[in-house]
Design a protein that fits this description.
This protein is mainly alpha-helical. It contains 6 helices and no strands. It has one domain. It is flat.
């Protein structure tokens, strides 16, 4: 028998590793817990953090595995969030603020 790499086993191993990788939502929850335990935060701050996550990140990035995200993907999403926020606030448009 020839020794070498068996592609089927390589794919199975990669799949197992990918299944163990955190999603953005799981990472966010872990970070929020870490943040609350290391430096006490008020209920209002915690609520603001959760609100920002649910409004801006959960729908688009929540299910994406951390290993599959790139800086470009996150920056593109933030650009869209900024653009939508700017368009939805007519006062900012009137005053010319960003």
């Amino acid at each position: 028998m020839i020794k070498g790499i068996v592609p089927r086993y390589v794919r199975q191993n990669e799949k197992k590793q990918n299944e163990q990788m955190l999603t953005f939502a799981e990472l966010w929850k872990d970070w929020l817990t870490f943040r609350a335990e290391t430096k006490p935060i008020s209920d209002r701050t915690l609520s603001d953090y959760k609100g920002a996550y649910y409004r801006h990140f959960e729908k688009v990035l929540g299910r994406v595995r951390v290993c599959d995200q790139s800086r470009a993907m996150i920056y593109e999403h933030l650009r869209c969030v900024r653009q939508n926020s700017f368009q939805s606030n007519p006062l900012k448009t009137t005053l010319g603020q960003n």
